[in-house]
Amino acid sequence: MIEKLLYATNFEKPSFVTLEGLLELCKLGLKEVVLLNITNFSEWEKLFSQHNINAKVLSEKEFSGSRILSIAERENASFIIAHLEKGQKRLLGSSTIKYLIKKSTIPVMIFPKVLTNKRWFEHIILATDWSPSSENALSYILNFKEIIKELDIVHIIDEKLTIRDLREIKDKLAKIRKVCLQQGLDAEFHLYAGKIDEEIIRAAKDYQGSAIVIGAPSKSGLREVFWGSPCYKVTEEAHIPVLVIPRTGG
After folding, report:
1. What is the pLDDT of residues 43-58, one digit of tens each?
2. Which domain covers residue 14, as residue numbers?
Protein backbone atom coordinates (compact mmCIF):
# COMPACT_ATOMS: atom_id res chain seq x y z
CA MET A 1 0.00 0.00 0.00
CA ILE A 2 2.80 2.41 0.92
CA GLU A 3 5.88 1.15 -0.88
CA LYS A 4 7.81 4.41 -1.00
CA LEU A 5 7.47 7.35 1.37
CA LEU A 6 8.88 10.87 1.42
CA TYR A 7 9.50 12.29 4.88
CA ALA A 8 10.12 16.05 4.90
CA THR A 9 11.02 18.05 7.99
CA ASN A 10 12.44 21.42 9.02
CA PHE A 11 13.20 20.30 12.58
CA GLU A 12 16.89 19.88 13.33
CA LYS A 13 16.37 16.62 15.23
CA PRO A 14 13.10 14.75 14.61
CA SER A 15 12.07 12.56 17.53
CA PHE A 16 12.86 8.86 17.77
CA VAL A 17 9.09 8.25 18.01
CA THR A 18 8.91 9.37 14.38
CA LEU A 19 11.37 6.67 13.38
CA GLU A 20 9.47 4.00 15.30
CA GLY A 21 6.26 5.09 13.58
CA LEU A 22 7.86 4.76 10.16
CA LEU A 23 8.91 1.22 11.02
CA GLU A 24 5.28 0.39 11.87
CA LEU A 25 4.46 1.05 8.21
CA CYS A 26 6.39 -2.06 7.23
CA LYS A 27 3.10 -3.86 7.83
CA LEU A 28 1.66 -1.86 4.94
CA GLY A 29 4.45 -2.84 2.57
CA LEU A 30 6.87 0.04 3.13
CA LYS A 31 10.13 -0.71 1.30
CA GLU A 32 11.77 2.68 0.69
CA VAL A 33 12.02 5.95 2.59
CA VAL A 34 13.37 9.23 1.24
CA LEU A 35 14.35 11.55 4.09
CA LEU A 36 14.41 15.24 3.25
CA ASN A 37 16.74 17.40 5.37
CA ILE A 38 17.51 14.80 8.05
CA THR A 39 20.78 15.59 9.84
CA ASN A 40 21.00 12.60 12.20
CA PHE A 41 20.65 9.87 9.59
CA SER A 42 23.29 7.63 11.17
CA GLU A 43 20.96 7.10 14.14
CA TRP A 44 18.16 5.96 11.82
CA GLU A 45 20.07 4.00 9.19
CA LYS A 46 20.73 0.92 11.32
CA LEU A 47 17.08 0.40 12.25
CA PHE A 48 15.92 0.90 8.68
CA SER A 49 18.41 -1.72 7.56
CA GLN A 50 17.23 -4.17 10.23
CA HIS A 51 13.70 -3.88 8.82
CA ASN A 52 14.83 -4.26 5.20
CA ILE A 53 13.88 -0.69 4.32
CA ASN A 54 16.02 1.15 1.80
CA ALA A 55 16.61 4.72 2.91
CA LYS A 56 18.41 7.76 1.58
CA VAL A 57 18.79 11.39 2.59
CA LEU A 58 18.33 14.44 0.38
CA SER A 59 19.40 17.93 1.41
CA GLU A 60 17.50 20.86 -0.06
CA LYS A 61 18.20 24.57 0.32
CA GLU A 62 14.80 25.40 -1.14
CA PHE A 63 12.16 24.05 1.22
CA SER A 64 8.74 24.78 -0.22
CA GLY A 65 5.54 22.90 -0.96
CA SER A 66 6.19 22.89 -4.69
CA ARG A 67 9.71 21.56 -4.14
CA ILE A 68 8.48 18.77 -1.85
CA LEU A 69 5.89 17.71 -4.43
CA SER A 70 8.48 17.84 -7.19
CA ILE A 71 10.78 15.53 -5.22
CA ALA A 72 7.90 13.18 -4.40
CA GLU A 73 7.06 12.92 -8.10
CA ARG A 74 10.69 12.43 -9.11
CA GLU A 75 11.16 9.71 -6.48
CA ASN A 76 7.82 8.09 -7.34
CA ALA A 77 6.68 8.31 -3.72
CA SER A 78 3.13 7.21 -2.91
CA PHE A 79 2.88 8.94 0.49
CA ILE A 80 4.24 12.16 2.01
CA ILE A 81 4.85 12.92 5.67
CA ALA A 82 5.40 16.59 6.50
CA HIS A 83 6.78 17.31 9.96
CA LEU A 84 7.12 21.07 9.84
CA GLU A 85 7.18 23.71 12.52
CA LYS A 86 4.00 25.74 12.13
CA GLY A 87 2.43 28.90 13.46
CA GLN A 88 3.19 32.60 13.34
CA LYS A 89 6.87 32.14 14.11
CA ARG A 90 7.33 29.78 11.18
CA LEU A 91 5.17 31.15 8.38
CA LEU A 92 7.18 29.20 5.84
CA GLY A 93 6.10 25.93 7.44
CA SER A 94 2.46 27.00 7.48
CA SER A 95 2.41 28.09 3.85
CA THR A 96 4.18 24.89 2.82
CA ILE A 97 1.54 22.75 4.51
CA LYS A 98 -1.27 24.73 2.91
CA TYR A 99 0.31 24.25 -0.51
CA LEU A 100 0.70 20.51 0.04
CA ILE A 101 -2.94 20.16 1.08
CA LYS A 102 -4.17 22.02 -1.99
CA LYS A 103 -1.86 20.60 -4.64
CA SER A 104 -0.80 17.08 -3.71
CA THR A 105 -2.25 14.20 -5.72
CA ILE A 106 -1.03 11.65 -3.17
CA PRO A 107 -1.88 11.34 0.54
CA VAL A 108 -0.10 13.79 2.85
CA MET A 109 0.25 13.25 6.59
CA ILE A 110 0.85 16.39 8.64
CA PHE A 111 2.53 15.87 12.00
CA PRO A 112 2.08 18.04 15.10
CA LYS A 113 5.19 19.58 16.62
CA VAL A 114 5.29 17.01 19.41
CA LEU A 115 4.63 13.41 18.43
CA THR A 116 3.99 11.00 21.32
CA ASN A 117 2.43 7.90 19.74
CA LYS A 118 4.35 5.71 17.32
CA ARG A 119 1.21 3.81 16.26
CA TRP A 120 -0.35 6.55 14.17
CA PHE A 121 -3.13 4.41 12.70
CA GLU A 122 -4.15 2.56 15.86
CA HIS A 123 -7.29 4.66 16.47
CA ILE A 124 -8.54 6.66 13.49
CA ILE A 125 -10.94 9.60 13.55
CA LEU A 126 -12.44 9.71 10.05
CA ALA A 127 -14.13 13.04 9.27
CA THR A 128 -16.68 12.73 6.48
CA ASP A 129 -19.05 14.99 4.56
CA TRP A 130 -19.68 12.53 1.69
CA SER A 131 -17.71 14.61 -0.77
CA PRO A 132 -15.60 12.75 -3.38
CA SER A 133 -12.46 13.32 -1.31
CA SER A 134 -14.20 12.01 1.83
CA GLU A 135 -15.32 8.90 -0.02
CA ASN A 136 -11.78 8.44 -1.29
CA ALA A 137 -10.51 8.83 2.29
CA LEU A 138 -12.75 5.98 3.43
CA SER A 139 -11.63 3.72 0.59
CA TYR A 140 -7.99 4.53 1.27
CA ILE A 141 -8.09 3.97 5.01
CA LEU A 142 -9.77 0.57 4.62
CA ASN A 143 -6.44 -0.63 3.22
CA PHE A 144 -4.93 0.05 6.65
CA LYS A 145 -7.23 -2.35 8.48
CA GLU A 146 -4.30 -4.55 9.48
CA ILE A 147 -2.97 -1.85 11.81
CA ILE A 148 -6.21 -0.05 12.76
CA LYS A 149 -7.76 -1.17 16.03
CA GLU A 150 -10.57 1.38 16.26
CA LEU A 151 -12.30 3.70 13.81
CA ASP A 152 -14.62 6.56 14.78
CA ILE A 153 -16.56 8.12 11.90
CA VAL A 154 -17.47 11.76 12.53
CA HIS A 155 -19.78 14.13 10.69
CA ILE A 156 -20.10 17.79 11.68
CA ILE A 157 -23.41 19.62 11.41
CA ASP A 158 -22.85 23.34 10.86
CA GLU A 159 -26.34 24.41 9.80
CA LYS A 160 -29.95 24.02 10.90
CA LEU A 161 -31.47 20.71 9.84
CA THR A 162 -34.88 19.12 9.85
CA ILE A 163 -35.64 15.82 11.58
CA ARG A 164 -35.71 14.23 8.15
CA ASP A 165 -32.25 15.62 7.36
CA LEU A 166 -30.88 14.18 10.59
CA ARG A 167 -32.33 10.76 9.83
CA GLU A 168 -30.75 10.80 6.38
CA ILE A 169 -27.37 11.73 7.87
CA LYS A 170 -27.59 8.94 10.44
CA ASP A 171 -28.53 6.47 7.69
CA LYS A 172 -25.47 7.52 5.68
CA LEU A 173 -23.21 7.16 8.70
CA ALA A 174 -24.71 3.76 9.47
CA LYS A 175 -23.93 2.62 5.92
CA ILE A 176 -20.30 3.71 6.28
CA ARG A 177 -20.08 1.88 9.60
CA LYS A 178 -21.51 -1.26 7.99
CA VAL A 179 -18.85 -1.14 5.26
CA CYS A 180 -16.14 -0.84 7.91
CA LEU A 181 -17.56 -3.70 9.99
CA GLN A 182 -17.68 -5.90 6.90
CA GLN A 183 -13.96 -5.19 6.48
CA GLY A 184 -13.32 -6.33 10.05
CA LEU A 185 -12.88 -2.85 11.54
CA ASP A 186 -14.29 -1.93 14.94
CA ALA A 187 -16.21 1.19 13.88
CA GLU A 188 -18.70 3.62 15.44
CA PHE A 189 -20.21 6.86 14.15
CA HIS A 190 -20.82 10.19 15.87
CA LEU A 191 -22.57 13.47 15.11
CA TYR A 192 -21.16 16.79 16.29
CA ALA A 193 -22.52 20.30 15.77
CA GLY A 194 -20.56 23.54 15.46
CA LYS A 195 -17.54 24.84 13.57
CA ILE A 196 -16.18 22.04 11.42
CA ASP A 197 -12.50 22.28 12.35
CA GLU A 198 -13.13 22.76 16.07
CA GLU A 199 -15.54 19.84 16.30
CA ILE A 200 -13.26 17.46 14.41
CA ILE A 201 -10.48 18.22 16.87
CA ARG A 202 -12.93 17.92 19.77
CA ALA A 203 -14.00 14.48 18.54
CA ALA A 204 -10.36 13.40 18.28
CA LYS A 205 -9.85 14.38 21.92
CA ASP A 206 -13.15 12.89 23.11
CA TYR A 207 -12.36 9.50 21.59
CA GLN A 208 -8.59 9.66 22.12
CA GLY A 209 -7.75 9.20 18.46
CA SER A 210 -4.20 8.58 17.31
CA ALA A 211 -4.73 10.28 13.92
CA ILE A 212 -7.36 12.22 11.99
CA VAL A 213 -8.17 11.28 8.39
CA ILE A 214 -9.84 13.92 6.26
CA GLY A 215 -10.54 14.56 2.59
CA ALA A 216 -8.65 17.36 0.87
CA PRO A 217 -10.58 20.45 -0.23
CA SER A 218 -11.95 20.64 -3.73
CA LYS A 219 -10.31 23.06 -6.12
CA SER A 220 -13.67 24.67 -6.92
CA GLY A 221 -14.32 28.02 -5.28
CA LEU A 222 -17.53 27.20 -3.39
CA ARG A 223 -16.18 23.96 -2.01
CA GLU A 224 -12.95 25.68 -0.99
CA VAL A 225 -14.91 28.17 1.11
CA PHE A 226 -16.89 25.42 2.82
CA TRP A 227 -14.24 22.76 3.42
CA GLY A 228 -10.81 24.05 2.47
CA SER A 229 -10.35 26.40 5.40
CA PRO A 230 -11.54 23.86 8.03
CA CYS A 231 -9.27 21.20 6.54
CA TYR A 232 -6.28 23.50 6.80
CA LYS A 233 -7.20 24.62 10.32
CA VAL A 234 -7.42 21.01 11.48
CA THR A 235 -3.84 20.39 10.31
CA GLU A 236 -2.75 23.58 12.08
CA GLU A 237 -4.42 22.93 15.42
CA ALA A 238 -4.62 19.16 15.83
CA HIS A 239 -2.57 17.55 18.59
CA ILE A 240 -2.21 14.33 16.58
CA PRO A 241 -1.20 13.55 12.97
CA VAL A 242 -3.67 14.49 10.24
CA LEU A 243 -3.79 12.43 7.06
CA VAL A 244 -5.21 14.40 4.12
CA ILE A 245 -6.49 12.31 1.22
CA PRO A 246 -6.80 13.96 -2.20
CA ARG A 247 -9.95 13.84 -4.29
CA THR A 248 -8.24 11.42 -6.67
CA GLY A 249 -5.12 9.33 -6.35
CA GLY A 250 -3.77 7.54 -3.30
Report:
1. 778 888 888 999 988 8
2. 4-110
